[in-house]
Design brief:
Helix content: over 70%
CATH architecture: Up-down Bundle
Number of domains: 1
Family: Belongs to the major facilitator superfamily. Metabolite:H+ Symporter (MHS) family (TC 2.A.1.6) family.
Protein name: Putative proline/betaine transporter
CATH class: Mainly Alpha
Membrane topology: Multi-pass membrane protein
Distance between the termini: 42 Å
Transmembrane segments: 7-25, 31-52, 64-82, 88-112, 133-152, 164-183, 217-234, 254-271, 283-302, 308-332, 344-365, 377-395
Radius of gyration: 21 Å
Function: May be a proton symporter involved in the uptake of osmolytes such as proline and glycine betaine.
Shape: globular
Length: 418
Amino acid sequence: MVEWYDWFVYSSFAVYFAASFFPEGNDTAKLLNTAAIFAVGFFMRPLGGWLLGRYADRKGRKAALTLTVTLMSASALLIAIAPTYEAVGYLGALVLVVARLLQGLSVGGEYAASATYLTEATPRGRRGFASSFQYVSMTAGQLVGLGLQIILQNTMSKEALSSYGWRIPFIVGAAAAAVVFYLRRNLLETEAYDEEERESGKGRGTIRALLGHKKEALLVIALTMGGTVAYYTYTTYLTKYLSNSAGLPKETATLVSFCALFIFMCLQPLAGGLSDRIGRRPLLITFGIGSMLGTVPLMTALGGVDGFGGGLVLSLIGLVIVTGYTSINAVVKAELFPTNVRALGVALPYAIANALFGGTAEYVALWFKDNGIESGFFWYVSGCAAISLVVYLTMRETRDVALSRTEQVMGESVATRV
C-alpha cells in the first residue's frame, strides 16, 4: 500500500505543484509538463523490471521487496524537498525527474516481486483470490493519497496547498516507507523459490533464460496493453478529466475518485475468487469487450457530468469493467513462467507495456485535449483494448498450472487417487 501510495500521490497532487516547477503558462501546458515527468518514471520501469526481476529470481522475493521499498522512500523524500522554479529555475524540475526515475526503478521490481510472492505463497485453487490483493493494496495506496488530499483540501487554502501543502503527502510517504522496510525484512521466503534455489543454482533470472520463453513474454506485453491504458484512464487521469474537462470543482472530482476507487478495491477479491472457479480467460475477455465498446460512450458522458452522483455512477461502470483485468492480471502473468525466471518474466515484459501504454496514457490524453480533439483519446483506449482482446481470445487458460515440483507431484497424486 505504501509503495503504491508513493507512486500515485505524484499524479494526485500534480494539479497543486505543477506551477511550482514551471514558468507561467496555461494550466493544461503545466499539467502536460508534470504528466511528462510522470511518464518518465514509467520508462524507467523496464530497467527496474530487468534489474530487480533478476534480483528477485536470484536472491529471493523477500530481498527484492525490501530493496524496492528503500528506493521508494528515497524518491518520496527527494520530491518533498525539491526546490521550486522561482528559487532555482529548472533545477527543481530536474529533481522531480530524478525522483520519478527512482520510483520507476522501484515499481518496475515491486510489481513482479509482489505478484510472484502472492502467487507462489498460495495453494492452487486460491491463487486468483490471493493475488487480487495486489490491486487491493495498490488501490488502497491511491485511496490513502486521495484521502489525505481531501483532508488537506478542507483544512488548507488553495494558495497554501499550491505553495507548500503539496509537500506533506511526500513527507508522509517517505516516513511510511521506512516503516515498511522493517516489516519486509521479516517476511518468509516462498516454498517455490526455496525449492528452485536448492535444485537449480544456475541460470536463474537471466535474459538467456527468459528468451527461452519468448512467446510468454510477448503475451504479457499484449495482454497488458489494453488493461494498463484503461486502468490509468479510470484512476490517475480521472480526477484531472473531471476537473479540467467536465468542469467539476477539484474537491468534487477528488471525492468522486475516492468513492469509486474504494468500491473498485472491494471488488478485486470477489473477481479474483471468481477466476478460481471459472478460469482467468472469461474475466479477461469480459474486460476486453467492455473496454473496447464502452470507453467512448463512458468518457463522453463523463465529460458532461455536472455533479457528484453522475460522476460516481459513470466512473464505477468504467472501473467494474477494468476489474476483469486488474483482479487477475498478476496471477495470469506469474502462471505463465517457471520459478527460475518467474519474477523477471513478469517484470520486464509488463514494465515495457506499462512504459509504452500506461505511463503515456495521461500525457496522450492531455495532448489530445491541448490540440482540441479530446475524443481521440477515447478511441485510442478502445483500440488498445481491442488488440488485447484478440490475445485474451486466443491464449491458453492458466488456472490449473503447477508453480512448483511439489505442487505438481501433489496434483498428480490427487489425480491418481481420483
